Amino acid sequence: MKTAVIGASGYAGGELLRLLALHPKFEVTLVSAHSNAGELVASVHPQLQSYTGRTFVSTDSIDFDGIELVFLALPHGESSTLVVKIPGHVKIVDLGADFRLESASQWEKYYHGTHAGTWVYGLPELATDQREAIKKENKVANPGCYATAISLGIAPAITMIDSTDVVVVAASGTTGAGRSAKINLIGSEVMGSMTSYKFGGVHQHTPEIEQALSAVAHKNVKISFTPMLAPMPRGILSTITAKLTQPLTTEQLHAIYSEHYLNDFFIDLLPLGQMPKTSAVLGSNKAQIQVAVDDHTNRVVISVAIDNLGKGAAGQAIQNANLICGLSENAGLAFDGVGS
């Protein structure tokens, strides 16, 4: 299938190009970037030598004639202005936030601007019917990176906890903030240090997570979410806790998660005693999960590791594209992480 990657000069766009270079069905025929238009792809992404000689085209000059699949890896708010120019028969996976939220008021509160609408939410493992819902659509809203890790972590236990008081602390690598130069993200500021940011429940993934989990639980879900910046380029490690509403042991909780994710290739529930590591999922579309019951406070504790550019962005986008194109969900993605 002839495929376009728009916004390919960023970190998520570069990871899309890397993964798509090995995909058995998707052929990248157009690579677009705004500020880098005219530059060589391999000069911006030196690791992508398979794209040697190819240049970024400007977004304004794109001819969608013959294009069958589009990945949008644009800043939030930009996808909605571009999709109106894409022919209706073309399949689209949007890695931005433009079409994730159902509530216009929540969009305006967290992202500002005008709400563009809602597409099917592209987290196949979220619920038993989510995968089939994605398959029926031509346009998919790819979830946010934190939203992916947190939703996957708590979804299997959502009916067994007090869903109005879910507490999350999650650390992300610096690529999660994008490629634009920022003083707080330069090496001198980040290396050897950790800090919280968007402190006090204001992170933009909060309404997305609550929306996704409320749909699964069929009741109101509220989270208190504190993100942290970790001194590493990529990866997310989330720790999620919530009060139990029924008696459970760690072994029983582990068995529930094992059954829930039994047929999900990309979710690795680790053996009891083994903890998720960001390095273990690096470069992959995998999520590692571990669970426990804190008997002292009667709370579930869940640890989740993903690659923010893999399962948190490009890998999941390709997984969704596979589904809407009628391909094997694992096509081009059936590999483990790099490790340390």
UniProtKB/TrEMBL annotation:
EC number(s) recorded for this UniProt protein: 1.2.1.38
Protein name as annotated: N-acetyl-gamma-glutamyl-phosphate reductase
SMART domains to which the protein is assigned, alphabetical: Semialdhyde_dh (SM00859)
Residue span, Semialdehyde dehydrogenase NAD-binding domain: 2-134
Organism encoding this protein: freshwater metagenome
A Gene Ontology BP annotation from the UniProt entry: L-arginine biosynthetic process
UniProt pathway: Amino-acid biosynthesis; L-arginine biosynthesis; N(2)-acetyl-L-ornithine from L-glutamate: step 3/4
Molecular function (Gene Ontology), one example: NAD binding
Catalytic activity: N-acetyl-L-glutamate 5-semialdehyde + phosphate + NADP(+) = N-acetyl-L-glutamyl 5-phosphate + NADPH + H(+)
Class of enzymatic activity (EC top level): oxidoreductase
UniProt cross-references to SUPFAM superfamilies, sorted A to Z: Glyceraldehyde-3-phosphate dehydrogenase-like, C-terminal domain (SSF55347), NAD(P)-binding Rossmann-fold domains (SSF51735)
Keyword entries, A-Z: Amino-acid biosynthesis, Arginine biosynthesis, NADP, Oxidoreductase
